[in-house]
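Structure ticket #2291
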Amino acid sequence: MSLSISLHLLARLPVPGRVKTRLIPALGEEGACDLQRALLARALQLPSDGFSERFLWLDDSPDAELQALADQLGWTLVEQPAGDLGERMRRIAALGLAESDAVVLIGNDCPALDGEYLSGACIALHAQPVVLGPAEDGGYVLLGLRRIDPLLFEAMPWGTDRVLGLTRERLQQLDWGHQLLPVLWDVDRPEDLPRLAALGIQV
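Resolution: structure written out below.
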């Protein structure tokens, strides 16, 4: 059975002072904004293999540079729905599942997430209704779904080290099988910056 899978990238528009705020002490507002733009550009360049459609969900209207890059690389640019992170993810997943058999949601904070990782998520979705890409900080960097339930998104302490564990507990309550991908790291704090340099991303 071949699934149609859509990829959904949730991102914040690079605006100085509004993005990567925990890195502003180390990089300054402009530097943190430049990093967000670099991470976003890298995510947009991920290979499209395995995906029927790819959507970039921004929290604001795009600037011309970002719009041009998304167009050039074959992404459909959409403004994020209203609500907290959980509500936005739930609505995006529901919209995606109305058009395709499965959805994969990612952010742009995880530069270690590559085409091979996405391919692993697509393979996992053929076997399980849910796939999770765990983050070192206790959250997740990828969520793949063939079905949806508000329980996965409601009253979730986003941004804490409890997100992955709680999500797995709730999947157990729903009696939904899931597969875990390898643990990755995301860029949130100044101590993450040396790893970025090792990947060749200059800040």
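Closing remark: The first helix runs from residue 24 to 44.
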